[in-house]
Amino acid sequence: MSVSEPQAMEVVVAEEPAEAPAKPANDYRVQREIYEKYLPIVRRIAMRTVRSLPPSVTIDDVISAGWLGMVEALGRRTPDMTDDHFEAFASYRVRGAILDHLRMLDPMSRKLRGASRRITQVAAELVGRLGRAPEQEEVAAELGMPLADYHKLLTEISEAGYARLELNDIGEPSSLESSPESIATRRQLVGTVAKAIDGLPERLNLIVGLYYQEECSFREIGEVLGVTESRVCQLHSEAMHLIRAMVEGRPISRRRRGSAGPNRSGLRS
């Protein structure tokens, strides 16, 4: 009897480790299901947000950065969030994580952010002075730089990821409010952006439409306009700064009933 009891104990001890892997395996399946469910959202946002990548950055790098934003969103999801509500919230976080990643890659990011703000400020002053969107020569002259240097700066700003117009950049509340007041404010903001786009020079207006509404690449737009891809990059950057200048120069007042205009901006929130 004294011999058989330890043997029985050995059997019990030997069986315990065999059951242990069941929980990690289940956790892995759950994690895999989450990954497969939300990766397409991250990939879609990455492809739409990043149209022009620096040579050193791959789309896989961008998707990885976006996934970190998705993980953050999953950690902040509350039980009362519907699937649509969560997807909107997660999209905001994913897009922000991607842009932050691109900005961190560039050691000149602080300098370029300042340059971008300066261009917007100068353009806004010219809009107020001229009553129209300024020409590139006018902006360059006001900045005190040759036109070629201005073009180069626009390209650098675009490649660093700063030549993008998100509605969040021009006054959209960071929280996902759905009150009638916030909805009306957002509609007014979109209408203001649409008016700013209508006020662009014809070629810049066309570029914005092809890029945001038709989802054409810079290369495809270049083929339409008969210019190089890098030139389209410059023109897109110029258009974004002019839109910001015109929008920021028009304070948002309470919209009168029935005056909401159609959303023709084609810009994504």
How would you characterize this protein structure?
- With 269 residues, the protein is an all-alpha fold.
- It has 11 helices and no strands.
- It has helices at residues 4-19, 22-49, 59-76, 83-105, 109-130, 136-143, 147-159, 180-198, 202-213, 218-225, 229-248.
- Helix 5 packs across helix 6 (136-143).
- The longest helix is centred in the first third of the chain and has 28 residues, at 22-49.
- It is globular.
Give the structure's gist in a few sentences.
The chain has eleven helices and no strands. The chain is an all-alpha fold. The termini are far apart.
Helix and strand topology:
Layout: H1 4-19, H2 22-49, H3 59-76, H4 83-105, H5 109-130, H6 136-143, H7 147-159, H8 180-198, H9 202-213, H10 218-225, H11 229-248
Essential attributes:
mainly alpha, disordered N terminus, 0% strand, 269 residues, globular, 11 helices
Strand fraction band? under 5%
Order of helix and strand elements from N to C terminus: HHHHHHHHHHH
Q: Could you describe the largest sheet, including whether it forms a barrel? A: none
**Tally of DSSP helical segments:** 11
- For the record, give the distance between the C-alpha atoms at the N and C termini, rounded to a whole number: 76 Å
Class from secondary-structure proportions? mainly alpha
Per the principal axes of the C-alpha atoms, what is the gross shape?
globular
What does the average pLDDT come to? 75
- The helix fraction, in percent, is 55-70%
What's the Cα radius of gyration? 26 Å
| DSSP, total strands | 0
**Parts with pLDDT < 50 across at least 5 consecutive residues:** 1-23, 167-177, 250-269
Assembly type of the chains comes to: single chain
